[in-house]
Protein: 3-hydroxybutyryl-CoA dehydrogenase
Organism: Embleya hyalina
Amino acid sequence: MTGNGRAPRLAVFGAGVMGVGIATLAVARGVAVTLVDVDRARLDTARARLRHELRLAQMMGALSPGGAIGDLRLADAATAAADATWVIEAVTELAGLKADVHKEIAAVVAPGTLRVTNTSSIPVDELAGQVPSPEDLVGIHFMNPPYLIGTLEIVRGPRTGERAMSAVRDLLSTLDRRGIVVGDGPGFVTSRLLHRMINDAANLVEEGRASVEDVDALMEGCLGHPTGPLRTADLIGIDNLVDSLWVLHERTGDEGCRPGELLLRKVAEGEHGRKTGRGFYRYGAS
């Protein structure tokens, strides 16, 4: 229960892959969730997609059978988040769009409410400079799928306040997740390392040095990477990966982060990974 006697509620903005994944994690822990998206078509499928993710979580042992499932509300307006204990924004990796969403959130939630940006690459302070009450803004980099990966990055921006950090700890305790606090900056730690590696792996395939399968097999068998970089790209979403690489390239000048031709071609051809049924690998019915 919260300090005012009400059960806590999490508001998640964005009903895409990550938003639904975060909502799945929360309801699986018995937390009430309000899922907000202005795209009615995407919102209309969100409940079915969340049920599917819950079934996968249970099959993979991430959800105890018979456990309490949190209430799910769907909404197409920011005002639905007015009673939220915590708010997580999980919209597309575009700094301007994220800033606009956070302005809407700040206008409806109670003062001091934790506002989280789920971002893989955009510096938290870049957003903080454009939104009200920057002391309430924290970055969390949830990994996909959030209900399977128990460790995540917490990004404390220069303007993030101690009250917000305390609220993050409460949120992650409720979600049964381990957070590691890292410094702010493009890509933080995981994306700065992983996304450049995936880009290099795709470039090796494009050069004809090795096949997709062999690149992943070498990284798994020789270096202990659990899935291989290219299968990981399919899980992240190749379109999301390319967006993050552009953020890194623009903000660091590192040419190694400029998306390679193979990644760009896959995005243009709609081969975005698991969510579209085809990326570096094929998924679903053949």
About this structure: The radius of gyration is 19 Å.
